[in-house]
Amino acid sequence: MAETSKIEWTDSTFNPWIGCQKISAGCDHCYAEAMNRFRKWNGGEWGPRAPRGRTSEQNWHKPIQWNREAERSGVRRKVFTASLADWLDKKADQRWREDLADLIRTTPMLDWLLLTKRIENYERYAPWRPKEIPRNVWLGVTCEDQAAFDRRWPIASELPATVHFVSYEPAIGPLTVAEVRVPPEWIICGGETGAGARRMKKRWARNLLRECEELSISFFMKQMTNKATIPPDLMVRQFPTVIYLN
Fold first, then answer.
1. For the chain, what is the domain count?
2. DSSP-based three-state secondary structure for 218
3. By CB atoms within 10 Å of each CB, which of 23, 30, 86, 229 scores lowest?
4. What pairs with residue 187 in β-bridges?
């Protein structure tokens, strides 16, 4: 059986490489960087001059096995890429991105959730031209507040992916999507965790949920600040509906 991710909105997590660099306020308390101080994953480090470490061939083979299992069961699997890196990080080796593209093409029963804070790098570093994005790619941008959304979403919304999604996590400021010309199909909402976590106000999540209901956007409430109990009215965990035609 394919291993199950601890991240509630995906089935599995795949990290093609490890290491990143802080670029916005949402990165201030990066959980991956904090964990890496103790674990030292595969040579991957954080910072502008730090190396990025490609993961093992054994790890790269896992999605192939997940795809086989999905083919046998007839049930597609969601694969979040990458929880310990950014797939559009300019410091990552471009050959790794090409290898990732090959892996995505050869695993059609997996829905690859590619999340980035660097969507402005798409034209330069993505391994496909916009019209060549595989249909099993779901393209997401992290938008921790309105300013980040206003910078990143207009770029993402113009790319022809099967699903466009927003990770509003850590939510450190209010967010509205009501005025955008093209809304996302899916929004994940979550508060920050760990030492010094910045508080997500409940009304931010409630206002966003109401907008999602009005705009027919799937809404997924991942967690409150420091994983406090999710209020009953916010315990909404929806996924976008996708129909793949042969």
1. 1
2. strand
3. 229
4. 166, 219
